[in-house]
């Protein structure tokens, strides 16, 4: 099996490196952040991903997994090198690939023989060829001519279920020009081939486009069902039954048909914007994707209107907020609906009592401008205590089993804005609650 290196220990890089080691590869993960590397060497995980920590410890102990800041050693000792650095959005929505190209330059600086350089960072079409050009340039400056191949191998990991997604992927996409590089990638993903995971072999540009096209489509499903939910509310229809019936159609499928306050996270918003800019650069427009982005933003603001309509004047109201991460089982709040909803509630005069199982540290940074209006709480019942209403923003499992019988003793107002449809109206009404769901 080829020896591997992973450049970048963010979410994708860490999960990729750790799980490849768990499947028997020798893997060295590299990062410029010395403090992070020191913590990883001691088994301390900088992200929240269920089940990852024991896998890290297991592979550190058996010697298959290594962490270092020394990219030279990692490159020289490895044949297959993954680039997994960030590609944050620029102000115009385009993906910034400067960190990808910097990683390529660093790899080229220390190449000592044939290497397969695998771009796993989500990058616009054309990035793989830019990597190739960058490496050629650095090798020319060094006066050497080592052979190498560049591969585009997009990731499809979901935060909170990354281990399952990596071990049992829907497909593997390999974009390459040289059959030898494809064979090396098959050796890397041998465990998937044993499980007969479908593999798409394509050119570099096709592999890069698959990632963007997939994420934009899933984001459109979320946005579509939210728009249908808004119509359902006005027409006395139940969006959950509508979505269930839709999902039984095999041409549609049940995934991403849960109505709520809008999508967020590190992928959908960024990738949809980057896809629009890629289309513009080649003289095309993606009007459907553009409308989707606008609708998703409006959905978040619509949730504020729902709360204001249900409570009336928000000035001086205490509102319990359950969940600020964009989804459960992660500490990530990037592009979370909470980033739009909470500041707007504060602007309207509300005081917030916030509880999230994992999101507080990131939340304190993100909401630093409104911290005077936020009381951070240690559990559900501290948050709802003395509140006028409860808002469920994230569908963490513990929010599915709230003990509503405790509300009176906590002097909590019996008004529930269930923005994830975790509960049904009738049982809540029987408990004396004024209930507001989404699309029903």
From TrEMBL:
Classification via InterPro entries: 6-PGluconate_DH-like_C_sf, NAD(P)-bd_dom_sf, UDP-Glc/GDP-Man, UDP-Glc/GDP-Man_DH_C, UDP-Glc/GDP-Man_DH_C_sf, UDP-Glc/GDP-Man_DH_dimer, UDP-Glc/GDP-Man_DH_N, UDPglc_DH_bac
Record-stated family: Belongs to the UDP-glucose/GDP-mannose dehydrogenase family.
Pfam families reported for this sequence: UDPG_MGDP_dh (PF00984), UDPG_MGDP_dh_C (PF03720), UDPG_MGDP_dh_N (PF03721)
GO molecular function: UDP-glucose 6-dehydrogenase activity
Protein name, per record: UDP-glucose 6-dehydrogenase
Domain of life of the native organism: Bacteria
Keywords: NAD, Oxidoreductase
Catalyzed chemical reaction(s): UDP-alpha-D-glucose + 2 NAD(+) + H2O = UDP-alpha-D-glucuronate + 2 NADH + 3 H(+)
Its EC number(s): 1.1.1.22
Span of domain UDP-glucose/GDP-mannose dehydrogenase C-terminal: 320-425
UniProt pathway annotation: Nucleotide-sugar biosynthesis; UDP-alpha-D-glucuronate biosynthesis; UDP-alpha-D-glucuronate from UDP-alpha-D-glucose: step 1/1
């Amino acid at each position: 099996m080829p020896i591997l290196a992973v450049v970048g220990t963010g979410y994708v890089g860490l999960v990729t490196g750790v799980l490849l080691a768990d499947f028997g590869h020798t893997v060295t993960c590299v990062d410029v952040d010395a403090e992070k590397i020191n913590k990883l060497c001691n088994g301390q995980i900088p992200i929240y991903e269920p089940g990852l920590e024991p896998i890290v410890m297991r592979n550190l102990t058996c010697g298959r997994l290594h962490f270092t800041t020394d990219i030279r050693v990692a490159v020289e000792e490895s044949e297959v090198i993954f680039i997994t650095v960030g590609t944050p959005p620029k102000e115009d929505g385009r993906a910034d690939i400067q960190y990808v190209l910097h990683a390529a330059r660093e790899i080229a600086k220390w190449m000592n023989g044939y290497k397969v350089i695998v771009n796993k960072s989500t990058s616009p079409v054309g990035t793989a060829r830019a990597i190739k050009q960058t490496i050629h340039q650095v090798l020319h400056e060094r006066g050497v001519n080592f052979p190498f191949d560049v591969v585009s191998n997009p990731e499809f990991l979901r935060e909170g279920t990354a281990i399952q997604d990596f071990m049992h992927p829907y497909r593997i996409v390999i974009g390459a020009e040289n059959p030898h590089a494809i064979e090396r990638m098959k050796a890397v993903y041998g465990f998937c081939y044993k499980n007969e995971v479908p593999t798409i072999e394509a050119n570099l540009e096709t592999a890069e486009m698959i990632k963007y096209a997939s994420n934009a489509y899933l984001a459109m499903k979320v946005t579509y069902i939210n728009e249908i939910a808004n119509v359902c509310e006005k027409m006395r229809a139940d969006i959950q039954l509508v979505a269930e019936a839709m999902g039984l159609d095999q041409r549609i499928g049940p995934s991403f048909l849960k109505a709520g306050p809008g999508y967020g996270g590190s992928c959908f918003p960024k990738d949809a914007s980057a896809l629009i800019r890629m289309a513009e650069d080649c003289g095309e427009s993606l009007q459907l994707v553009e409308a989707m982005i606008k609708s998703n933003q409006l959905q978040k603001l619509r949730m504020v209107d729902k709360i204001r309509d249900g409570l009336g004047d928000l000035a001086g109201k205490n509102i319990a907020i359950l969940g600020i991460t964009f989804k459960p089982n992660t500490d990530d709040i990037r592009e979370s609906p909470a980033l739009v909803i909470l500041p707007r509630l504060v602007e309207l005069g509300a005081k917030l009592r916030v509880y999230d199982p994992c999101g507080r540290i990131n939340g304190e940074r993100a909401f630093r401008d409104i911290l005077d209006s936020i009381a951070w709480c240690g559990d559900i019942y501290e948050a709802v205590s003395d509140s006028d209403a409860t808002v469920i923003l994230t569908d963490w499992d513990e929010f599915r089993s709230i003990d509503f019988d405790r509300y009176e003793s906590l002097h909590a107002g019996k008004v529930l804005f269930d923005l994830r449809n975790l509960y049904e109206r009738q049982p809540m009404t029987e408990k004396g609650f004024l209930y507001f769901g989404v699309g029903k």
